[in-house]
Every structure is written in structure tokens, then in C-alpha cells.
Design a protein that fits this description.
The protein is α/β, with parallel strands linked by helices. The protein folds into three domains: about 90 residues, OB fold (Dihydrolipoamide Acetyltransferase, E2P) (Beta Barrel), CATH 2.40.50; about 190 residues, Vaccinia Virus protein VP39 (Rossmann fold, 3-Layer(aba) Sandwich), CATH 3.40.50.150; about 120 residues, Beta Barrel (OB fold (Dihydrolipoamide Acetyltransferase, E2P)). Helix content is about 25%, strand content about 30%. It has an eight-stranded mixed beta sheet, sandwiched between helices. α4 packs antiparallel against α5. The longest helix is centred in the first third of the chain and has 17 residues.
């Protein structure tokens, strides 16, 4: 499961400005009843035959809104006042909620929140014909658990605006703290702001990827041109003072470059220390990773040969290798090599066969898959259509799917079931607390 940071678009031409003008409508103030909370976490109401998308509201509430721009088949509206609140409404724990774009659902009480996450998965499955799918009670992860985060920063004169994008905006919501982050990442906010003041050029907007590792914070900055000598010296001082174990830089045209490193960043995957490559992907929280792994192990129990497809660093590979010989496959070289080295250090080298392969363009064929007792696949958000077609044509008895996108998962599940598999159950895992996103684990058998 490898998800690399997306490149920022450089195209800001006349067509995009023209589209923005066309999206504007005459603003009106309305009182409406919220009918539902949609897949993006916005409330949905109706007005003049169109949908209104309203952030920060709950189903059944009467609210006063101000209409704004068009969005798809509807109109975005800003919440002015909750006239009749739902009994499911909660006090958001973060002072930035409502303007910060990082969270959508802090205003739900715990049970309503869990129900919404479960329904999010059930609806996606129903759209593919799984009306009676068994969707289990979601595993809620909670606050102070996020071990990786993407900040946005911009230098303006002698100041650095640092935080997250505001809701539906390119403006930055400046933050002092985030209640979702593990303590080590939350404590890194002020030192990172101070570093960026020294290394960013005036006006430059950057993305800052920070990951909490076993031995400290790993940082990757996407901030325009490669840093000059003074910036490199500032980064080296930052690392030498213990604020991070590594700081890397990625400009617009080249792969990441390590600028300074005191130690190789290490992460603990099922009791094995694994080197974290620059820009490497991890599950968002240790607690969520463990919940997913427990369900994966349940789905492949007793299997002696397992294919772990889109394996990334080996979040599940290393645990699986204690019960089976595992063929671990991913399209990016650096995570695979890190997995190989970690397996060797843990005396699991003979039980992990790692391979670099683009499974979207070169899926493992059905005949080869039929030699395994179980297949696990954990693709990016777009899913794994071509590989799933090969799994569906195979005779492998058990399949486990991990996904961060209920819609693409439901499509892939349809292929498997049409190919002769039975969907046993689906477990939602709330890896991304207070967001509209939901991770899931599904078990299939032939």
C-alpha cells in the first residue's frame, strides 16, 4: 500500500479563473431542514430542486444558511445559525473546528458518529448490490493517535503561516496544537514553524509531511526550489539539536533529497523495526493498524502460503510471516527493500519473498494466485480492478481486502462476488478520526 504525496498543480490559467466565476451564484439567506449527512460529511438539504451542501450540520436540524457557489449538482451553503439542534449534536473538542478543513465531524456524539461511519460503508456496498452485507460495528480510534500528518505552510514577509488548509479554501488555518496528533508530533509544531521561517523563500507555499517514528520525527518538505546553503545549514542545526531524526526536501521536479539525518527513522511493525523511506506510507495510527491487522489475521487463519499485494513497508507482511510464507508485492522499490532488510534482521528472510511489481499494469495472474492459501490486497484509493479480476478468476480459497475508499472497494468486491466469492463481513476502522474518511477490512471465501 504505497501512496506517494501528489504533486501540486502548476496550471493556474484563465480557464480555472473563468470556471470559478461561473460557479458563483446570487447569495440568499434561507431556513432549511437538513435531510441527511452525505459521504463528504456535509449536511444535505433541498432548495428549488437543487441540493444544498452545508458543513457542520446534522440530519433533522433546522438551520439558517447563506448560499454560495455551485458544487456539482448542487450549491454550497454557509451555516449562519442552528435554529433547532439535533440531540446528536456535540461540542467540538477543537477550537479550530468549522474553519480548519482537516475535520468534518467533530460535532457528532460518539454513537451517532459510529453509526455514520458504518452507514458510509453500508451505502457504498448497497450501491453495488450488497443490500444485506454484514457491516460490523466500527472500531473507533480516537484523539492523540495520529502519527503522520501533512501541514501547509507559507512564508509571508518575516512570518510563517502554518497549519492546515481552511475548509474549501487555499487559505491556511494557523494552529498552535492539534488534538488528533500523538504528543511527539503536536510538540513539533512550534519548532517546525521556526525552521520554516529560516528555510522558506518569501511567498513560497510548502507542504510539510511529518511522521512520528520510534526514534523521533521524520520530516519531508515540499517547498519549491532546492534549499540554498544557508537553508541547508539551518536544517542541519535543526536535526543536530534533536528536533528531528531526518529532514528531506522535494522540489517540483526531482525525487526527495535527504538534507540532514541524525539517525535512520525507524518504525515498529509487529515487533520488527523497519526503516522508513523518505515519503514512505504508514497507517495513520498504531491503534488503527493493530485493529486492521487483527481482522486480517482472522481472515487468513491457518493459511500456509499468503500473497500480500500492495504491501508497502510490510504493515501486515511481517505479522503474516510468523504463520506463513508470504509473497509481498508493491510497485515502489524503496519500501520493498526496507521490508527485505527488516525481515532479514528479524530472521524472517526465508519467510518473506519481496517483489517490486506494478500490479495495476502487470497483475499476478489467476494461475499463479491459485497456488496460495490466501490473498491479502491493500491498494491505493482507486482500488485494484485489474488485480481483482485475476483474483476472481483464481481458485484461492480466502481473500482479505483492506481499503481506505468504500466506493472503490465496493466495486472490487462486486468483481470478486461475481467471480464466485462470498463476502463474509466488513469491519470499518476509523483511522481518520473526525474526517469523512473510513478504512475497512473485508473477508471473502470461495
Amino acid at each position: 500500500m504505497s501512496r506517494r504525496p501528489a504533486k501540486r498543480s502548476k496550471s493556474r490559467g484563465r480557464s480555472s479563473r473563468s470556471s470559478a466565476r461561473k460557479s458563483l451564484i446570487t447569495s440568499e439567506t434561507l431556513d432549511v431542514i437538513v435531510q441527511d449527512v452525505g459521504a463528504q460529511g456535509d449536511g444535505v438539504a433541498s432548495w428549488q430542486g437543487k441540493k444544498l451542501y452545508i458543513p457542520g450540520v446534522l440530519a433533522g436540524e433546522k438551520v439558517r444558511v447563506k448560499t454560495g457557489r455551485r458544487r456539482g449538482d448542487g450549491i454550497v451553503a454557509d451555516l449562519l445559525e442552528v435554529l433547532e439542534p439535533s440531540t446528536d449534536r456535540a461540542q467540538p473538542p477543537c477550537p479550530y473546528f468549522g474553519t480548519c478543513g482537516g475535520c468534518q465531524l467533530q460535532h457528532l456524539k460518539a454513537q451517532a458518529y459510529a453509526d455514520w461511519k458504518r452507514e458510509r460503508v453500508a451505502r457504498a456496498l448497497a450501491q453495488r448490490g450488497f443490500d444485506d452485507a454484514v457491516v460490523l460495528t466500527p472500531v473507533l480510534i480516537g484523539m492523540k493517535t495520529r502519527r503522520r500528518v501533512t501541514f501547509t505552510a507559507q512564508k509571508v514577509g518575516q512570518n510563517v503561516h502554518f497549519g492546515f488548509n481552511e475548509r474549501a479554501s487555499h487559505d491556511i488555518q494557523k494552529i498552535k496544537s492539534c488534538p488528533l496528533l500523538v504528543a511527539g508530533l503536536d510538540a513539533a509544531i512550534d519548532p517546525l514553524k521556526a525552521l520554516l521561517k529560516d528555510v522558506l523563500q518569501d511567498g513560497v507555499r510548502a507542504r510539510v509531511f511529518a511522521t512520528w517514528c520510534e526514534n523521533g520525527v521524520d520530516v519531508l518538505i515540499e517547498g519549491g526550489k532546492s534549499p540554498d546553503l544557508a537553508a541547508r545549514e539551518a536544517i542541519a542545526s535543526f536535526v543536530n539539536s534533536g528536533e528531528a531524526v531526518r529532514v528531506s526536501w522535494q522540489d517540483d521536479d526531482y525525487p526527495p533529497e535527504p538534507i540532514a539525518m541524525a539517525q535512520t527513522p525507524m518504525v515498529n511493525l509487529s515487533g520488527v523495526l523497519v526503516e522508513l523511506p523518505m515519503g514512505g506510507f504508514l497507517q495513520a495510527s498504531i491503534e488503527g493498524e493493530q485493529a486492521i491487522l487483527a481482522q486480517v489475521l482472522k481472515g487468513v487463519e491457518g493459511a500456509g502460503r499468503i500473497a500480500d499485494l500492495y504491501c508497502g513497508l510490510g504493515s501486515f507482511t511481517l505479522a503474516l510471516s510468523r504463520q506463513a510464507v508470504v509473497r509481498a508485492v508493491d510497485m515502489i522499490d524503496r519500501p520493498i527493500r526496507a521490508l527485505e532488510r527488516a525481515a532479514g534482521r528479524a530472521d524472517l528472510g526465508g519467510r518473506v519473498v519481496a517483489e517490486v511489481r506494478d500490479l495495476d499494469r502487470q497483475p499476478i495472474d489467476a494461475k499463479s494466485l491459485s497456488k496460495f492459501d490466501a490473498v491479502l490486497f491493500d491498494p491505493p484509493r482507486v482500488g485494484a480492478v485489474e488485480q481483482v479480476r485475476q483474483i476472481a478468476a483464481s481458485s484461492v480459497p480466502r481473500v482479505v481486502a483492506v481499503s481506505c475508499n468504500p466506493a472503490s472497494f465496493a466495486r472490487d468486491a462486486r468483481i470478486l462476488v461475481d467471480g464466485g466469492y462470498r463476502l463474509i463481513d466488513v469491519l470499518p476502522v476509523d483511522q481518520f478520526t473526525f474526517s469523512a474518511h473510513v478504512e475497512l477490512v473485508a473477508r471473502f471465501e470461495r
